[in-house]
Amino acid sequence: MNMNDMIIKKRDKGVLTEEEIQFFVKGYTEGAVPDYQASALLMAIYFNGMNKEETYALTTAMRDSGDIVDLSAIRGIKVDKHSTGGVGDKTTLIVGPMAAACGVPIAKMSGRGLGFTGGTVDKMESIPGFRTTLEEQEFVNLVNENGISVIGQTGSIAPADKKIYALRDVTGTVENLSLITSSIMSKKLASGSDAIVLDVKCGDGAFMESLEDARRLGELMVEIGNADGKRTAAVITDMDQPLGRAVGNSLEVIEAIETLKGNGPEDITLLSQTLAGIMVYLGGKAASPEEGYRMAGESLQSGAALEKMRLFIKGQGGDPRILDDAGLFPQHQFAVEVTSPGAGFIQKIKARQVGIASQHAGAGRAAKGDAIDMTAGIYLHKKVGDAALEGETLATVFANDEQKAAAAAEELLSAYQIGEEMLQTNKLIKEIIGL
């Protein structure tokens, strides 16, 4: 077997065998296959695609390139949750405590962000004292004692994905159905949970802009998860405008806390309850997804989910007083208001552009090694469907650098589309696959 033959085969729309795919993944991970040959194969895959068998073979080869986490010491059915990424998406910090409050053990490994805003790990690290790196036994103990622990993903899980994704990121081969599926599912299958709930974003701020593409991605990931013995469901959700009102690390944690108190925006509350309800169902704590949804809602109303968040923060060294005093988070130096240039209704907020604006403020990374400003971000006072008067505040940009704040504010204003007609907002929950 050699890479040149494989490149030509896929260039000519051939089908790679399981052995050929394993040869590529193992060789590239270990350094035997050079970047230029890996890039050529990835580009051939990008243009000509992979069938389901090839995609599953790529996923399992990447899964097996590192450690498979053993969570058998944790009692109960462990349910993982993953989002394909979006602007203002802080649902892990909400659905985790909600599902845990309903009796589902949450033993989750999350990643850092590259691009618009931080990942879940970055957001958690905005909590004073919070530790995202734990020894395995402490991680297991915390889940058994408190019902929830979320830590940073270790480099030993699917190292092939880490290396291949870095190459895809600089070779224009990110947006491909099979490559996205294998990247996500190789990590999920290696992470040790018994069931998986996937939040597949669709729209302007998502990898998959069309509903059709999002559906294809969701169906393929569900099929691969189930084939690996893990009950898997996917929820197709809207990302044409940011989720919630807060975009940026500590701002998103604060909004997650408010949601757990029952004071969150309508969209983030609905999505979180939907995802948590499915997790409760797959975790065997509810007889149906509808009962799971009801139980998740009750965890908010009773305060049980908020109490799980308190135990979660305290267990990992964070200061639980932030639940009652947001002033304990690091504070920004500059706040710039973005005002409406005219009167009318908010007809569109370009999610991707809002994400770029938050990155300009300092909330995201342009390159892997960039430092994140935990205080930076955006708060959206007006969303799609809201009325605005001329000069009224649409949003506020927070930053620790005056020039960054000004640049972000300019970018943010251009993300808003204002017109005379009030338009209907998109349906948030578009489809559920696998239930």
TrEMBL record:
Leading EC class: transferase
SUPFAM superfamilies (alphabetical): Nucleoside phosphorylase/phosphoribosyltransferase catalytic domain, Nucleoside phosphorylase/phosphoribosyltransferase N-terminal domain, Pyrimidine nucleoside phosphorylase C-terminal domain
Cited Gene3D superfamilies: Nucleoside phosphorylase/phosphoribosyltransferase catalytic domain (3.40.1030.10), Pyrimidine nucleoside phosphorylase-like, C-terminal domain (3.90.1170.30), Transferase, Pyrimidine Nucleoside Phosphorylase, Chain C (1.20.970.10)
The protein, known as: Pyrimidine-nucleoside phosphorylase
GO cellular component, one term: cytosol
Similarity comment text for this entry: Belongs to the thymidine/pyrimidine-nucleoside phosphorylase family.
Sequence ranges assigned to domain Pyrimidine nucleoside phosphorylase C-terminal in this UniProt record: 345-419
Keyword Amino-acid biosynthesis recorded: no
Swiss-Prot/TrEMBL catalytic activity: thymidine + phosphate = 2-deoxy-alpha-D-ribose 1-phosphate + thymine; 2'-deoxyuridine + phosphate = 2-deoxy-alpha-D-ribose 1-phosphate + uracil; uridine + phosphate = alpha-D-ribose 1-phosphate + uracil
Coiled coil region boundaries: none
Functional summary from the UniProt entry: Catalyzes phosphorolysis of the pyrimidine nucleosides uridine, thymidine and 2'-deoxyuridine with the formation of the corresponding pyrimidine base and ribose-1-phosphate.
ATP-binding recorded as keyword: no
EC number: 2.4.2.2
Keyword terms of this UniProt record: Glycosyltransferase, Transferase
Subunit structure: Homodimer.
GO biological process, one term: pyrimidine nucleoside metabolic process
GO terms of molecular function: 1,4-alpha-oligoglucan phosphorylase activity; thymidine phosphorylase activity
PANTHER family, sorted: THYMIDINE PHOSPHORYLASE
Organism lineage string: Bacteria, Bacillati, Bacillota, Clostridia, Peptostreptococcales
